[in-house]
Amino acid sequence: MLHVAIVVHRHARFDQRLYWVQAISDCWVENGIRLSVIDDPKTRIDADLAILHVDLTVVPREYLACVRSCGATVNGAVSDISKRAISANLLRREDRYDGPVIVKTDRNCAGDPEALLAKNGWKARERGDIIRSALNHLKEKRIRARRRRRHGSKRAFLDYPVFRSMSEVPAAVWSDRDLVVERFLPERIDGRYCVRTWLFFGDQDRHAIFYSHDPVIKSHNIVDFERLTEVPEELRQIRRDLKFDFGKFDYTMVDGRPVLFDANRTPTIGDFPKERYLPLAQTLARGIGAFVRNPPAVKPQAPAIAINRKMIQA
Fold this sequence. Notes:
The protein is an alpha+beta fold. It has three domains: 3-81 and 270-290, Rossmann fold; 90-183, no CATH class; 186-264, 2-Layer Sandwich (D-amino Acid Aminotransferase, Chain A, domain 1), CATH 3.30.470.20. The protein is built from eight helices and 14 strands. It has helices spanning 20-30, 61-68, 83-86, 112-124, 130-151, 171-174, 233-242, 274-285; strands at 3-7, 34-38, 49-52, 73-74, 90-91, 101-105, 162-163, 179-183, 187-189, 192-201, 204-212, 222-227, 246-254, 257-264. The strands form three sheets. Strands 9, 10, 11, 12, 13 and 14 form a six-stranded antiparallel sheet that branches. A four-stranded parallel sheet has the order 2-1-3-4, with helices on both faces. Strands 5-8-6-7 form a four-stranded antiparallel sheet, with no helix packed on it. A hairpin with a 2-residue loop joins strand 9 and strand 10. Helix 1 crosses helix 8 (274-285) and helix 4 packs antiparallel against helix 5. The two termini are 14 Å apart.
C-alpha cells in the first residue's frame, strides 16, 4: 500500500481552515492510499512520499529536516514564501519609479498564520516547550503593537492600499520590515481589473482568471471568472526556479509577461461547497503520479472522507 505523510506544524489545527491538501488526501484515502499526518518534527518519516504543509511564511529548519528525511518530497525545498523572497517588483525608498505602488505585508496572509500558531502554542503550553511558546506569542503581540504605534492601527495596510506614486507612501512604511512597497502592475480587460490563478499539484492543475471592478481583487469583490488553458512558459519557469511542487500562484499579465505577486504552498479552498471543489480535488489528486510510481487510480466520483490529524501517526 502506498503511504503518504503530510508534515504540519505541531500547533496546526486543520479544522480551523479547509486546505486543498485535505481535499486531495481525502481522494487518496478513498482510493486505497495510506495517510499519516506528522506534527512532531523529530519523527523520521517512513513513507513513500512526504508533503511539507507547514502554514508559515518561513518554515522552521526542524520541519524542513523532517520532510527531507523521506526519499521523495513535495515542496521540500520551499522554505520561504515572503514577498521579499517571491516578488521581483519590490521598491526601496531611494529607487526612482513614477508609477503607482502598493503596500503589502512581507509575510503571507498578513502574518495571521504565525499569530494563530503562536497563540495555539501558548494555549497548549507543552512540557519542555513553554519558553519557546511564550516567546513566539509575545513576538506576535509585539508586531501588532508596533504596527498600531507606527501606523495608528494593528490592522493597518492589511487591505493592500494603492498609492499613485512613491511620494504618497507614508514615511513610516519604508522603515517597517513587516511591510513592503511593490510596483502596482494590474491587468485590465474591457475596463475590469483581473487576476490569474494557477493551482497545481505535480503535473495536474487548474488555471483561471477572475474579474473585479476593484484594483485589489479579493474573493468578496469578484464579479466573474473564466477557465484558462495554457500556462505561460515563463510562469512555469518561475515555478521551477522557486522549486514549487504544489501550491497556488497569483499573477497578472503585463506587456505579454506574467507578473507573480503571490506564491502559496498551503492554499485554502474557501467557502465553497464540496460538490464544487471535489471534482478539482480529484484532478489534483492524480498529480501524485509525478512523485511516486504506480499510484492507485483516482476514481472520478469518489466521495470525500474527512482526515483527522489523530487518525494515524507514523
